[in-house]
Design brief:
The protein has helices spanning 3-20, 35-46, 58-72, 90-99, 146-164, 189-204, 218-229, 249-259, 284-289, 312-318, 349-357, 369-389, 396-405, 420-427, 449-460, 470-475, 480-483, 513-517, 519-524, 531-537, 548-559, 575-589; strands at residues 25-28, 51-54, 76-80, 103-109, 135-140, 170-176, 234-238, 262-265, 301-305, 325-330, 343-346, 412-415, 436-438, 464-469, 489-496, 542-545, 563-570. The protein is an alpha/beta fold. The protein folds into three domains: 3-204, Thiamin diphosphate (ThDP)-binding fold, Pyr/PP domains (Rossmann fold, 3-Layer(aba) Sandwich); 218-375, Rossmann fold, CATH 3.40.50; 391-589, 3-Layer(aba) Sandwich (Rossmann fold). β7, α8 and β8 (262-265) form a beta-alpha-beta unit. It is globular and about 85 Å long.
Length: 591
């Protein structure tokens, strides 16, 4: 049997099985050893079964695939050659693992006879990503035994299932190939016969991947409802959640109305934008960032849905000795970062909220607790608006608010980590305008922000505003290559504030003597690169904005055409840290 023809057919069956199991997108990093896989992907793209993107930089490719999968909720296929190529996927794989994002990482490899012999571009790729994948499967060398070929197809279906349930995340498939890596003649009879047999396997259908949620037990709901009936000042804390499967607000709203609880929605929860403000307390960060004894809000019960919260003030409060009872509900993972929760429910929060609402008629919470909490938030926003109106220069909060306001209804707001994801909670009130929020809060790294946003735009076609810091922009300059040719607009708003300004909020900022002199060098690390120059290197237009009005106009200009535009917002250097402290002082002073 012709081995080259066998592995060509074998690669086609593998890709077909992945497509039949629900994979619709592939991101390919070019290379030689992956030739059989790439040719198979090309064939299925021509058939309309798969949409492929080619991204030369493997690190960028990993985040492009991550952004696609975060947006769609379906696994994206990520393909590379042998050697260190797959290792560059590792940061994106870690984020996918931590955030429960499905990926199928398919690495091409050298055959066994070349392993551990000093062969070129050959490393041990078995279990390359360690515990950060849900499964790691070595597919071995293509085998002509029909049972092995049928097993390959089932393994592909199993990989897709494992990426979705019971806990979604990345799966690694390692495929070994021998040279020659391509064929130029028709299949010999034995391969044609094998193809005919395998066609029958596909015609018979493959197992369909299903993600099942365990429903809460009725007696557990009864017991939690009894506890909630005793609550006088309750809050629902909504932490980071997937764009593709957000918590239903209608189920949550019914619970809020019956329980008297108020909603504290982080920007990443998918509940801060597009929900009415009647039961929303959205200025919780400055309120809980206030000193003990100066906090106007003192809830006595917290129902947490989604991931662990992002905000510093909220996190300090939840981790303190004075924190109230807290129950955590999550579809996946174990988001209990404070070791103080009384219960952790690993189930769909909507099932719990619906079950509780059916048990909470007429419980009588503290009179107008929700109304008072919302009113206190309104006073914070009024004070901030007045302070910004009187401010000189271009404060960073004004830039953040302008960028968020510029996202159209139905659009996407992508948030870089470090300060931007926190600044939206600190400076931007919730709105009824419906926008989705893309973030990377699984591992909370600053890497891959541009690449992931580009992947999300490619998968969705949503007009998008990406808000990130200048260090994060420099960290992912290579992502600009993936952002050039997109079906919708991507405004990359770079907060040019002179480095890693999150460190301005940390104790290291105030160290005396020589340590203070080292702060800028070792912590702020002001980027040396000019955003406009970086954009020009990739033939991407750029705009500089020095005021809120100029920034608004720049984002509107970026939104008028598909593809990326780099918008440099030149804000006052350390204004964000100062404004955060001012806002907390306002919260303490006005109550």
């Amino acid at each position: 049997m012709s081995y080259a023809h066998l592995q060509a057919a074998w690669s086609e069956w593998l890709i077909e099985a992945l497509c039949a199991s629900g994979v619709r997108r592939a991101v390919v990093s070019p290379g030689s050893r992956s030739t059989p896989l790439v040719l198979a992907i090309s064939r299925f793209e021509a058939k309309g079964r798969l949409e492929a993107s080619v991204v030369a930089d493997e690190r960028v490719a990993g985040f492009v695939a991550l952004g696609q999968a975060k947006l769609t909720g379906a696994p994206t296929l990520l393909v590379c050659t042998s050697g260190t190529a797959g290792a560059h996927y590792f940061p994106a794989v870690i984020e996918a693992s931590q955030s429960g994002t499905p990926l199928i990482v398919l690495t091409a490899d050298r055959p066994p006879e070349l392993q551990a012999r000093g062969a070129n571009q050959t490393i041990d790729q078995s279990n390359l990503f360690g515990r950060y994948v849900r499964q790691s499967l070595d597919l071995g060398i293509p085998d002509p035994d029909p049972r092995a070929c049928e097993g390959l197809i089932r393994t592909a279906a199993r990989a897709v299932q494992a990426s979705l349930a019971p806990e979604s995340g990345p799966v690694h498939l390692n495929a070994r190939f021998r040279q020659p890596l391509q064929v130029e003649t028709a299949d010999p009879p034995e391969v044609s016969d094998l193809r005919s047999r395998i066609e029958g396997v596909f015609e018979g259908g493959l197992p369909r991947p299903r993600s099942l949620r365990l429903a809460p037990e009725p007696h557990d709901l009864d017991e939690l409802a009894r506890r909630i009936r005793r609550v006088r000042r309750g809050v629902v804390l909504a932490g980071p959640a997937s764009v593709s499967s957000p918590v239903s607000y209608s189920a949550l709203e019914r619970f809020l109305e019956l329980s008297g609880f108020v909603l504290l929605p982080e920007a990443t929860s998918q509940l801060r934008f597009g929900t009415p403000g009647r039961l929303v307390c959205d200025a919780f960060e400055p309120l809980f960032g206030a000193r003990p004894g100066h906090r106007p809000l003192e809830p006595d019960f917290v129902l947490q849905i989604g991931g662990a919260p992002t905000g510093r003030g909220l996190s300090r409060w939840l981790g303190s000795d004075s924190a109230p009872e807290r129950v955590v509900m999550s579809r996946s993972g174990y988001p209990e970062a404070f070791n103080r929760a009384s219960d952790v429910w690993l189930t769909d929060p909507v099932l719990v909220l619906t079950g509780l609402a059916a048990r909470l008629e007429g419980i009588g919470p503290e009179a107008d607790w929700a109304g008072r909490a919302v009113s206190e938030c309104d006073r914070i926003w009024e004070a901030l608006a007045g302070l910004l109106a009187d401010a000189d220069g271009f404060p960073e909060p004004a830039a953040v608010r302008t960028a968020v306001d510029a996202v159209p209804s139905g659009g996407l707001l992508a948030l870089g980590n470090s300060l931007p994801v926190r600044e939206v909670d600190l400076f931007c009130p919730s709105t009824s305008r419906s926008i989705a929020v893309l973030s990377q809060r699984g591992a909370s790294g600053i890497d891959g922000g541009i690449s992931a946003a580009a992947g999300a735009v490619a998968a969705s076609g949503f007009p998008t505003v990406l808000l990130l810091g200048d260090v994060s922009f420099q960290h992912d300059i290579g992502g600009l290559a993936a952002a050039r040719d997109l079906p919708a607009s991507l405004a990359i708003v770079v907060l040019r504030n002179g480095g890693g300004r999150l460190f301005d909020l940390l104790p290291v900022r105030d160290l005396p003597g020589d340590a203070a002199k080292s702060f800028e060098r070792f912590f702020l690390t002001p980027p040396a690169i000019e955003p406009a120059g970086a954009a020009a290197a990739f033939s991407i237009p750029s705009i500089v904005a020095g005021s809120a009005e100029e920034l608004s106009d720049a984002i509107a200009d970026a939104a008028s055409r598909p593809g990326a535009t780099v918008v440099e917002a030149r804000v006052d250097g350390d204004s964000s840290a100062n404004w955060i402290r001012t806002l907390i002082e306002v919260a303490e002073r006005i109550f």
